[in-house]
Amino acid sequence: MTGFINYQKVLIVGLGLIGGSYAQKLSLLGFEVGALARRQETLDYALQHGLIAHGRTDVTREYVSQFDLIVFALYPRTFVDWIRKYQDYLKPGAVVTDVTGVKRSVVPVVQELLRPDVEFVPAHPMAGREVCGVENSDARIFANANFIITPTERNTPEGIELIRTLGCILGFRHIAVLSPEEHDEMIGFLSQLTHCIAVSLMTCKDSEKLVEYTGDSFRDLTRIARINEEMWTELFMENRDELLSQMDLFLAQFSRMREALAAGDTDTMKEMMRLSTQRRAYFDK
Amino acid sequence: MTGFINYQKVLIVGLGLIGGSYAQKLSLLGFEVGALARRQETLDYALQHGLIAHGRTDVTREYVSQFDLIVFALYPRTFVDWIRKYQDYLKPGAVVTDVTGVKRSVVPVVQELLRPDVEFVPAHPMAGREVCGVENSDARIFANANFIITPTERNTPEGIELIRTLGCILGFRHIAVLSPEEHDEMIGFLSQLTHCIAVSLMTCKDSEKLVEYTGDSFRDLTRIARINEEMWTELFMENRDELLSQMDLFLAQFSRMREALAAGDTDTMKEMMRLSTQRRAYFDK
After folding, report:
1. Which of A69, A145, A237, A254 suits a disulfide with B200, CB 3.0-4.6 Å?
2. Where are the domains of chain A?
């Protein structure tokens, strides 16, 4: 895949934290990176900091049609709308990918909509920060993160390989392939459920007076409670049935612990703690 | 309080992680530290590593009566039993303190039992690790931690001041005074509830296949899911009513999020996320 580096011009659609971080890394690697953003200030920032070579706020055929690879770093609904509106402008043979955190509600829709001469290879870079916006772009967030490709039967081996190479050169630690269904179940449990828990815990009490007593446990469990409510509400809604299942799974275990405590059933409490200790140990290997 | 350093001999009863870490720091500071432990191997380790000057596995009047300050680093019930059995051996005028993580069920009982010529000043060093035992002793765990003194009307200003100085020289970042009731509510929420959540989350699914996809969120929320089941079950049981209240508080918020998601009520979801973000911000000041 030497060719990947030699001739690709990459367009980033949406310069938020993730789009900006993609742009930063790809520019550093020598790609010609263009961008579409809603606001001129975003483009100005990205130009001044060397994240992109050029950019536009308006979507034109002339600009869009020059790119071989287009990365959509938009919210799920905005991404689908863009494809519906502007896919005519895409260069024949172009490859499209995304960074969307939910897959079942996006992948089949976009693949169904899209022209047959353009391939959409879906991906989810599992990286982020508690802050958003292009000015927080930092490609180092990819170094310890997972890159998940979620292809369907419509994808070609070449398309998948291209996006695998993209994940690789962006610096992700681990690259995996899952079906959209497997992805959404996994992300519902590992990411969305944990955010629900953190938000619920953080909203229990006024924390201002608790700050001085707070040890590592509470800080760890609520780090992700600083949350972009627009993005996460959309992600939750797009994965609603799966997230509800994962929440119910957690509720069942939490209620089991509560009932055991209320009943003074220390055997069940200890059994849960032993299982928990044993399973957590996998993570420290 | 220069006198504190000059003439005190300190006895640590119970050489686990916390007892061992107290011993390590106090020995480094030049105190003569003695210890009572159940197993000779524990004492051998502590002697070889300079944590203590001497120690015993049997409790005798001759040994116990030489100490001015006695720190109980035992499980709650074991602490109360020790006092009941051996308090006659304590030197007249001695000060007793503890490290117990629950207070309402321990403090009044011990203060009621204790001879009038010995003062018990309760304290809770809010420090710990995911490992236990004397061989994991490390006084550096105190550096970022809180030290809570929970006196009652039976305590003297001098006794409280002595234990405040103890917390200070052990290196705690922040020393506070709370009532046993305030302490148990706070610890029920900040520490015990968070451990219940972590254990419940960790027991939801077999994690072995999830390890490779796990990002920081899940790792953060389950770090404390490696748990000493004997100690934590006893701590939960000793604070049962308060912990049940805190669990119900969390359940109410989590259920609110679940109902909002199920109903597609994005306004409520966003409102909770905004409140969560605002409250979490206190912690990053």
Report:
1. A254
2. 2-178, 183-284
Q: Residue B258 is nearest to which of A126, A216, A247, comparing CB atoms? A: A247
CB atoms A190 and B215 under 8 Å? yes
**If phi over 0 gives left and psi between -120 and 50 gives alpha, with beta otherwise, what is residue A264?**
left
Query: What predicted TM-score, i.e. pTM, was given to this entire model?
Result: 0.89
**Using CA atoms, how far apart are residues B29 and B166, in angstroms rounded to an integer?**
11
pLDDT one digit per residue (tens) for chain A, 285 residues? 445 654 589 999 999 999 999 999 999 999 999 999 999 999 999 999 999 999 999 999 999 999 999 999 999 999 999 999 999 999 999 999 999 999 999 999 999 999 999 999 999 999 887 778 899 999 999 998 899 999 999 999 999 999 999 999 999 999 999 999 999 999 999 999 999 999 999 999 987 778 888 878 899 999 999 999 999 999 999 999 999 999 999 999 999 999 999 999 999 999 999 999 999 988 876
The ipTM, to two decimals, is: 0.89
B6 CB-contact burial (10 Å; exposed 0-12 / middle 13-18 / buried 19+): exposed
Kindly indicate whether the domain formed by A2-178 is annotated with CATH number 3.40.50.720: yes
- CATH classification of A183-284, choosing from 1.10.150.120, 1.10.3660.10, 3.55.40.10, 2.30.130.10? 1.10.3660.10
CATH assignment of B7-178?
3.40.50.720
Mutation target vs B (from A75, A148, A197, A239; most B CBs, 10 A cutoff): A197
